[in-house]
Amino acid sequence: MADEAVARYKAQEGLKSVTFLADDDNGQYAALSLWDTREDAEAAGEALRAGLQQALHGIAAGPPTISLYEVYTPPGS
Predict the structure, then answer these.
(1) What does the mean pLDDT of the chain come to?
(2) Could you tell me the pLDDT band of residue 54, with boundaries at 50, 70 and 90?
């Protein structure tokens, strides 16, 4: 499933990286993705939502949620 999702993520503008996490025993799945801009992240979230929901239907503990966070880079890093 992650291999198929990678192609969907790569098709979105501004993707820097994506990492997938899974806990099959509890039906919990996550993706951590980094984007060039917040706008890229928001557009990707909208574009990917339906496909993720369909892919996870029946195996995930609930519907996918999308949360956006700012990345802090300390000075001098």
Answers:
(1) 87
(2) confident
Measured in whole angstroms, how far is the alpha carbon of residue 35 from the centre of its chain?
A: 10
DSSP H or E segment with residue 76: none
**3-state SS class at 19:** strand
Cα–Cα distance for residue pair 63/53, rounded to 1 Å: 6
The pLDDT tens digits for 65-74 are: 789 999 898 9
Q: Map residue 15 onto helix, strand or coil.
A: strand
- Between 17 and 61, the more confident residue is 17
Instruction: Give, in degrees to the nearest 5, the angle at Cα 26 between 21 and 54.
Output: 65
**Residue extents of the structural domains in the chain:** 2-56
First to last CA, the chain: 35
Residue 33, number of CB atoms within 10 A of its CB: 19
